């Protein structure tokens, strides 16, 4: 930005008090949940309505200034990392729940509404299934950008399965409606293309969500095994029996020790693995299936069945505290989010163990066992010279091991800045160039969240040749996208 | 339409498409040909490219509940293989014989299982596509959870081959439940039927689909349950239907009931209506006014209205109140199959089309 004209315009749109330019205040926004990366934008703008968002984006377009949208800033891939020469558009003031339509299972929200607020708005009968562990603070706008998952997505799916419509401000400041409260609007599924696009296609200012009835019954147990391999075999047996648990989560010994130290949830600290299995659904179905799961866990060293909500909460407390508790193992950790085909679990965990030993570092494993989404936590002490670099190298090799096993570099955290360097391990040049086509259709000038997702900067060329209309389209008889 | 020799590999298909792109020859992709009447009729110079040579089931990873299929694999053939492991791809659109996975995904066609498992957009986890400039590209992967890169598979699902050719898909599979049971409720009152369906949809009962059928002033609600113990849930659903005044039953051998629902999604003229569950009574009354019959996924707000005597005016009438897309229709019926789209949205779709099909040949 070369002059203050944009800042003046932004102040005119949202009011001076909602344009942040003081260095100390900007510091609040220089990172998202991934603190390894930091950048201070020229300004942070906090619009309070969809119309203000549109005006802000249009102003940036006119002044040719890049921008990054931010929700709660709880993302773990640096997806909301500002660009230094650009504007950060913080959506935290757009937090109105505009419509709750229980009979149709729909909720219309602004992007700054928190994930938990949606479930609260439709309680006690309904809930919003995607439940990232940051759900108390993370926003729906962020969930849409990242296609967030959570512990229950093996059974219930991801954010993309629960968004039916969006009102979007495109990077040129134009507003479009994609989908709506109804399913299957005609034309291309641009809702599907937008969800998970990590803020690179525009800003969703209104979001139609689908909510579903709460299950009648919930049954939870935690089983402790000598090793993750044993626990992994039980997971395979449960799934192959046709049981689809609401959640099925595993922790290894290092995670158990850290989490138990922090929570006193009663996990045995010498256990090789803890497997949390939660079934939900109808009373009769749950009961039958739960007996079956208990039977499948018969070789466990011990099994604890939650008898009431309190005990259930205690079982989950250790699992949910696992990340935060890592401070007990090492001052710093580096979390990965790779996915593997579940059947390759034993060999990939063995590979991770070997790699950790080679790098003289500890790796704790906490994962969504049903869908093979690992969260290896590489523990290190940043104060020791060279250790952070070694941790980063190790994390990279773990990602590679997962991709080599037929998996993905990220299951729910997104690519952002952190994993874009790994994109070429999954995708070849024609694949990346095809991704770019979508981005160019929405944002030909590359102003929305530049520097994210794609491993190298790319420009959008002109569309080659004029589009020729089908004779039937020319005759006004048909539009077939 | 000219028919090209069916390419034997995805690379060959890609080359044939690129050659057509170079020559600016319009191209239409064909799978099993079961829905070839849905898009506008092709012009005489259009080249038909078939996926009939792409019939390999590349992977069935039973332990991971995933599979990789070439586009030309008949859905029924894939299902037969998955069934040997007690699994299925949870897509059950009506199949008049030979529908391919590529065609089902490209058309976004779905059946009653949609209520529980979603449609192709929800079950395809990776895709390879061929584009008109000779690009062969993949997106997604073959694990069920993956957010790396843009979701090109969703963009191509339901795109009718107008962005390029789907040459291979990776899909998520589900276990087939050991047992099923269906609660059935009949009534001639549209409000009663809608209330019955809503009572089940909003209850915590874990249904595998709630359907409605309506013909000649009489209709039924069907709610299916599946699992280790489906009967108690079906009985609970029956009770809800009875409370709303419907004449009820519970059917254990329920497959024929659901076959009927699927079959009724085809006909001389079939219009798919996207609406909301609470508008069901209005939609049923509209069907009666227009002389149509209807089947639908009551909890999703998706319905298929069938007309024995096709008339474009009926489609237009529906569009006054509903989002309506034409599926089956006679070749000579002059009607816009898609219907109105907001101009700004349409312009964005056009830009997407131009980027993915730079030769502008995929029709």
The major pleated sheet of chain B works out as: 8 strands, antiparallel
Note poorly predicted spans of chain B. none
Largest β sheet strand count, sense and barrel closure of chain A: 7 strands, antiparallel
The CATH class assignment of the largest domain in chain A is Alpha Beta
The CATH architecture of the largest domain in chain B can be named as 2-Layer Sandwich
Compute the separation of the termini of chain A in Å. 39 Å
Shape of chain A: globular
Terminal Cα span of chain B: 12 Å
| Helix content class of chain B | 25-40%
Side by side, the strands of the main sheet of chain B go 14-11-13-12-16-17-15-18
Please count the helical segments of chain B: 12
Mean pLDDT of chain A: 93
Question: Can you describe this structure in just a few lines?
Answer:
The complex is a heterodimer of chains A (481) and B (363). Chain A is of the alpha+beta class. Chain A is built from 16 helices and 18 strands.
Question: Tags for this entry?
Answer:
heterodimer, A: 481 residues, alpha+beta, Uridine Diphospho-n-acetylenolpyruvylglucosamine Reductase, domain 2, Uridine Diphospho-n-acetylenolpyruvylglucosamine Reductase, domain 3, Alpha-Beta Plaits, 7-stranded antiparallel beta sheet, 5-stranded antiparallel beta sheet, B: 363 residues, Vanillyl-alcohol Oxidase, Chain A, domain 3, 2 domains, 18 strands
Structural notes for this entry:
The complex is a heterodimer of chains A (481) and B (363). Chain A has 481 residues and is of the alpha+beta class. Chain A folds into 4 domains: 5-90, Uridine Diphospho-n-acetylenolpyruvylglucosamine Reductase, domain 2, CATH 3.30.43; 97-213, Uridine Diphospho-n-acetylenolpyruvylglucosamine Reductase, domain 3 (2-Layer Sandwich); 215-328, Alpha-Beta Plaits; 330-426, Alpha-Beta Plaits, CATH 3.30.70.2740. In chain A, 33% of the residues lie in helices and 19% in strands. Chain A has 16 helices and 18 strands. In chain A, the strands form 4 sheets. A 7-stranded antiparallel beta sheet of chain A has the order 15-12-14-13-17-18-16, sandwiched between helices. Chain A has a 5-stranded antiparallel beta sheet with strand order 5-6-10-8-9. A 4-stranded mixed beta sheet of chain A has the order 1-2-4-3. In chain A, helix 1 packs antiparallel against helix 3 (50-63), helix 9 crosses helix 11 (309-321) and helix 12 runs antiparallel to helix 13 (387-404). Chain A is globular. The two termini of chain A are 39 Å apart. Mean pLDDT of chain A is 93; it is low at 476-481. Chain B is α+β, with helices and mostly antiparallel strands and 363 residues long. Chain B folds into 2 domains: 2-175, Uridine Diphospho-n-acetylenolpyruvylglucosamine Reductase, domain 3, CATH 3.30.465.10; 177-332, Vanillyl-alcohol Oxidase, Chain A, domain 3, CATH 3.40.462. Chain B has helices spanning 10-23, 75-83, 101-107, 114-117, 120-123, 152-156, 190-201, 230-243, 255-263, 280-290, 312-319, 343-356, and strands at residues 2-3, 27-30, 47-50, 57-61, 66-70, 87-88, 124-130, 136-140, 165-172, 174-175, 179-187, 210-215, 218-227, 247-251, 269-274, 293-297, 302-307, 323-326. In chain B, the strands form 4 sheets. An 8-stranded antiparallel beta sheet of chain B has the order 14-11-13-12-16-17-15-18, with helices on both faces. Chain B has a 5-stranded antiparallel beta sheet with strand order 4-5-9-7-8. In chain B, a hairpin with a 4-residue loop joins strand 16 and strand 17. The model of chain B has no long low-confidence stretch (mean pLDDT 97). At the A-B interface, strand 9, helix 7, helix 8, helix 10 and helix 15 of A face strand 8, helix 6, strand 10, helix 8 and helix 12 of B.
């Amino acid at each position: 930005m070369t002059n203050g004209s944009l800042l003046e315009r932004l102040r005119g749109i949202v009011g001076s008090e909602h344009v942040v330019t003081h260095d100390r205040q900007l510091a609040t926004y220089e990172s998202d949940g991934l603190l390894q990366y930091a950048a201070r934008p020229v300004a942070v703008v906090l619009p309070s309505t969809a119309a203000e968002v549109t005006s802000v984006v249009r102003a940036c377009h006119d002044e040719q200034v890049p921008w990054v949208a931010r929700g709660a800033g709880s993302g773990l891939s640096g997806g909301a990392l500002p660009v230094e020469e650009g504007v950060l558009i913080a959506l935290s003031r757009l937090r109105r729940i505009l419509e709750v339509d229980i009979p149709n299972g729909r909720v219309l929200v602004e992007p700054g509404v928190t994930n938990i607020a949606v479930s609260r708005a439709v309680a006690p009968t309904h809930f919003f299934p995607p439940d990232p562990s940051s759900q108390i603070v993370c926003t729906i706008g962020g969930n849409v950008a990242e296609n967030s998952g959570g512990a229950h997505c093996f059974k219930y799916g991801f954010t993309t399965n629960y968004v039916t419509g969006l009102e979007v401000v495109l990077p040129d400041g134009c507003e479009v409606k994609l989908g709506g409260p109804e399913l299957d609007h005609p034309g291309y599924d641009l809702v599907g293309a937008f969800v998970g696009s990590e803020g690179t296609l525009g800003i969703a200012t209104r979001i139609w969500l689908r909510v579903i009835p709460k299950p009648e019954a919930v049954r939870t147990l935690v089983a402790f095994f000598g090793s993750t391999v044993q626990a992994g075999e039980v997971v395979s047996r449960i799934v192959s029996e046709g049981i689809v648990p609401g959640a099925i989560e595993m922790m290894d010994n290092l995670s158990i020790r850290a989490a138990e130290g922090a929570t006193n949830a009663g996990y045995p600290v010498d256990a090789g693995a803890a497997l949390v299995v939660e079934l939900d659904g109808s009373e009769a179905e749950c009961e039958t299936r739960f007996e079956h799961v208990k039977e499948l866990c018969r070789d466990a060293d011990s099994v604890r069945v939650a008898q009431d909500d309190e005990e259930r909460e205690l079982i989950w407390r250790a699992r949910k505290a696992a990340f935060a508790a890592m401070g007990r193992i090492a001052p710093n950790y580096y979390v990965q989010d790779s996915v593997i085909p579940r059947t390759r679990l034993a060999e990939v965990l063995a590979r991770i163990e070997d790699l950790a030993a080679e790098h003289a570092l500890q790796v704790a494993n906490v994962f969504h066992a049903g869908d093979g989404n690992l969260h290896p936590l590489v523990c290190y002490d940043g104060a020791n010279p060279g250790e952070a670099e070694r941790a980063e190298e190790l994390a990279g090799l773990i990602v590679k091991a997962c991709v080599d096993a037929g998996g993905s570099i990220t299951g729910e955290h997104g690519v952002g800045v952190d994993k874009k360097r790994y994109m070429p391990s999954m995708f070849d040049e024609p694949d990346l160039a095809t991704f770019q086509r979508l981005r160019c259709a929405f944002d030909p000038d590359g102003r929305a969240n530049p520097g994210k997702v794609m491993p190298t900067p790319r420009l959008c060329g002109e569309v080659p040749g004029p589009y020729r209309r089908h004779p039937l389209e020319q005759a006004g008889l048909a539009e077939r996208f | 339409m000219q028919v090209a020799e069916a390419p034997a590999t995805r690379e060959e298909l890609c080359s044939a498409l690129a050659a057509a792109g170079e020559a600016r020859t319009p191209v239409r992709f064909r799978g099993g040909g079961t829905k070839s009447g849905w898009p506008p009729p092709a012009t005489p110079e259009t080249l038909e490219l078939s996926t009939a040579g792409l019939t390999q089931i590349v992977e069935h990873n039973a332990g991971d509940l995933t599979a990789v299929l070439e586009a030309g694999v008949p859905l029924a053939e894939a299902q037969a293989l998955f069934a040997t492991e007690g699994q299925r791809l949870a897509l059950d659109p009506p199949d008049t014989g030979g529908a391919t996975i590529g065609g089902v995904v490209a058309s976004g066609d779905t059946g009653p299982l949609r209520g529980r498992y979603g449609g192709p957009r929800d079950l395809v986890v990776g895709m390879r596509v061929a584009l008109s400039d000779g690009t062969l590209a993949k997106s997604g992967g073959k694990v069920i959870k993956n957010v790396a890169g843009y979701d090109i598979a969703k963009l191509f699902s339901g795109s009718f081959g107008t962005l390029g050719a789907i040459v291979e898909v990776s899909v998520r599979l589900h276990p087939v439940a050991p047992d099923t049971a269906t609660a059935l409720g009949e009534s001639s009152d549209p409000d009663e039927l809608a209330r019955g369906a809503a009572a089940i949809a909003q209850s915590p009962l874990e249904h595998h689909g709630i359907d409605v059928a309506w013909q000649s002033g009489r209709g039924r609600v069907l709610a299916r349950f599946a699992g280790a113990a489906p009967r108690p849930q079906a009985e609970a659903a029956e009770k809800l239907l009875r409370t709303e005044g419907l004449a009820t039953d519970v059917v254990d051998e329920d497959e024929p009931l659901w076959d009927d629902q699927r079959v009724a999604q085809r006909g001389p003229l079939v219009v798919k209506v996207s609406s909301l569950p609470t508008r069901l009574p209005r939609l049923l009354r509209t069907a009666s006014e227009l002389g149509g019959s209807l089947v639908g996924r009551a909890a999703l707000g998706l319905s298929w209205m069938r007309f024995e005597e096709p008339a474009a005016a009926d489609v237009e009438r529906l569009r006054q109140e509903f989002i309506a897309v034409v599926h089956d229709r006679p070749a000579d019926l002059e009607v816009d199959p898609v219907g109105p789209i907001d101009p700004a949205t349409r312009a964005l779709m056009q830009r997407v089309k131009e980027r993915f099909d730079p030769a502008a040949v995929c029709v």
